[in-house]
Design brief:
The chain is mainly alpha-helical and 154 residues long. The chain is 44% helix and 5% strand. The mean pLDDT is 86.
Amino acid sequence: MKIYIPPQVKRLLLLMTIFIVVFILIRAVLVPEGFGDYGHYRAGSLQDNESYEIKYAGHEACIECHSDIFELKEADLHSELNCEICHGPAQSHVEYPDSVDVKLNRERDFCALCHAAHAAKSTNVIFQINPDEHYIEKICIDCHNPHQPWELKE
């Protein structure tokens, strides 16, 4: 007894088979080597990350030379912040302290990244201002010591 298979079903099966074969071939080309060795990750990404140059030194490196500033900062609201949040990557400064200087960004917009009033921010954690109204003719660090922001300069 012969089973009759309609021609549209044959065409559909052929198309599905072609689709599956093409999918497997494309996946074999696009999925990188080592993908899935450690779960849903590419194993080679570990070596890739190890090859990047270290940019951040960590605040422990800053304390070694700048303990006086660290003591000021620890006594104020910015105590929870790492130095490199405001000063930027400092590894090159640690390696070459005489030739590489890490300066604070003096732009109002930089301070506003954290301190601009925003409804989603907690006012209990970060003091907020409206940078378009709060002494717009001045730069923040002209009045505020960034290491002790509540202490206004004279």
